[in-house]
Amino acid sequence: DGSRLVGLNNGWNPGRSKDGCPLKVLAIGTVSPLRLLTAGELAKADVVLCSYRLLFSRIYLDRREDIAGGTSLISLMQATRRIIEGQFNDKRQGKIHDAVTLSFPILEMFHWRRVVFDEFHELESFQSEQQSVLQHMRAHSRWGLTGTPPVDNIAGVIFMSSLFRCDLPGQLPLEKVAAKKGIRGLQEVPNMLYYEEDKLMQDLAGRFLDRFVRQNTAELPHIALQQHVILVRHTAAEQALYLGEAYDAPNVDWSGNAALAEGKSKNLERLLKLCSHFHSSGGAAAISAQVECERMAEVKSRKRTVELRQLARCARVLQILSEKLGTSSSSWRSKLDEMVISLKAQGRPAVEVLAQQEQAAEKESTLERCRVLAGHRPRDDSLATVLASCVDGETGVGSLRHWEGFACLPLSPKEAENLLVGQVQEQIENLLTLCAAVASQQYFERVTKAFLEGLPQYRNCQACLSDGIDLSRLAITPCAHSFCLGCLRKQVQQHQACSYCSQPLQHSDMRPLVAHISGTQDASQWAGAATVAPARDVLSDSRWAG
Predict the structure, then answer these.
(1) Rounded distance, CA 240 to CA 277, Å?
(2) Nearby residues of 422 by Cβ (< 8 Å), 6 or more positions away
(3) Nearest to 363 by CA among 424, 315, 426, 311
(4) Which distant-in-sequence residues (6+ apart) come within 8 Å of 357 by Cβ?
């Protein structure tokens, strides 16, 4: 009745509502209430509420083993039969108990009228032993409540049906795989992928869903189910935000076969936050999409500055190490030169920045280089270890004193060459990261100008030189160059590269900034490319105050 649950120590009392509630409700968050109960007292409860965590707690599991004399559920069933017959010897208490006097009972021993699993989709991630315990919670009927039932594949439906004691027949082949840690040889495990292709299982899974899964409605003819749809149209600033975040987000292998790096996963997280909350940062909500666009532009600018500083510092380290090597050979930087040639062919502006920093480092004195390096900690562990040994008694690696000491430290040619190899790899990573930061900033600037400022020169094609192109026919490539769809389609089909900077392009890059595509139109005209920020009406709530 919505009233406060009454503690067991105060006895069974009716609810606090006006007319009183006759139901006896027992809420169990920990094992403490169970320790105070006997099986007979627990059997008097009309409703028992408990958490999944209680069933898998160590104290609860130990008590189950004490009663069953082991860990198997069969042993528990046999012990329950002895309790009903009044022949159970509780070794912990040294007494003979029956179904009324047994203290500290466990829930798996009872046969319930109804068992309800709340948010049962979360149980799919539980270990098999824990799922087995829940499957053996005996009852006349079993219910599950969830807003996201696992119905996207056959394996999810099988899990759901087994939880509710409805076995779907089918044959699942076993495959031999490497045994778990600590076990030698191979072990046979079922491969659930076979079920996804089994026509019989697909039919049975569909029947199970049609028969047992239902929407939480009143199911009364005089209470109609009404769907309220709010049609909103994304503003220009909102669409620019989507495109800016989608540019940095990775292409995800949703099959689960590939892992995302930490930086890529954070980019994807920001995009998902933007899609669900219209806010990509972790701070307070933005006042409007326009304000969020300005904030994002500042973030991308700072990111570019940070990556540029990292590139400049690494160039100074390479110059110091090359002078220590003291040879005219430059074979140590062959991989870096190959990367520079590749990026230069793509028209990447960061290549010119690298050349400028290398020239500046060559002209600087040792002291000037060390001042630039002050506060820089190399990612290469070998160099960081050598750097730490240059100054005694000073915490932190990368201070001005560390770099001054390193500049004067004598190294053998072999040691210098090994450190150079590590720094070359680090500089390649810096170069690629800077290229990504520059491209992301340029792309977002181009998109915001096309959406927000709306001037004809910001909606131009750099191939046919047309101005004022409609956003439904304008595309901006990953290299931040704008084209009309006709010209871009020819470039991709004939050269697979941008005609302005020669950066490689794919069919997925042939997408308009805005796609006015109704459900009856053929979306193949966009060469299969999905539009990230559609301007068509969508079913969502607008979170922006503006």
Answers:
(1) 16
(2) 380, 382, 383
(3) 315
(4) 311, 312, 315
223 vs 162, more confident:
162
pTM higher than 0.70? no
What's the rounded mean pLDDT across residues 204-209? 87
Length of the chain: 546
Residues with Cβ within 8 Å of residue 353, at least 6 apart in sequence: 308, 311, 434
User: pLDDT of 489-533, one tens digit each?
Assistant: 888 888 888 888 778 887 777 778 775 333 333 333 333 333 333
What crossing angle do the helices spanning 289-325 and 350-363 adopt, rounded to 10°? Answer: 40
HEC assignment per residue over 254-289? CCCCCCCCHHHHHHHHHHHHHHHHCCCCCCCCCCCH
d(CA 369, CA 256): 46
Cα distance between residue 472 and residue 492, in whole Å: 19
Backbone angles phi, psi at 231, to 5 degrees: -90, 120
User: Do 454 and 365 meet the contact criterion of CB atoms below 8 Å apart?
Assistant: no
Query: Is pLDDT at 412 greater than 60 in this prediction?
Result: yes
Say how many Å lie between the first and final Cα of the chain, rounded: 42
Contacts with 97 (C-beta within 8 Å, 6 or more apart), sequence order: 39, 83, 86, 88, 90, 103
Other CB atoms within a 10 A radius of the CB of residue 417 amount to: 18
Residue 317: CB atoms within 10 A of its CB come to 26
Bridge partners (DSSP) of residue 5 are none
CB atoms inside a 10 Å sphere around CB 348: 23
Q: Among all chains, which residue has been given the structure tokens 């006349």?
A: 140
Report the C-alpha dihedral over residues 388, 393, 397, 398, rounded to 10 degrees.
-100
List, for residues 436-479, the tens digit of each pLDDT value.
888 888 888 888 888 887 777 788 888 888 888 888 888 888 88
Other beta carbons within 10 angstroms of residue 171's beta carbon come to 9
413, 326 in Cβ contact below 8 A?
A: yes
| Angle at CA of residue 274, ends 156 and 258, nearest 5° | 45
Q: What is the residue whose two structure tokens read 């096309």? A: 450
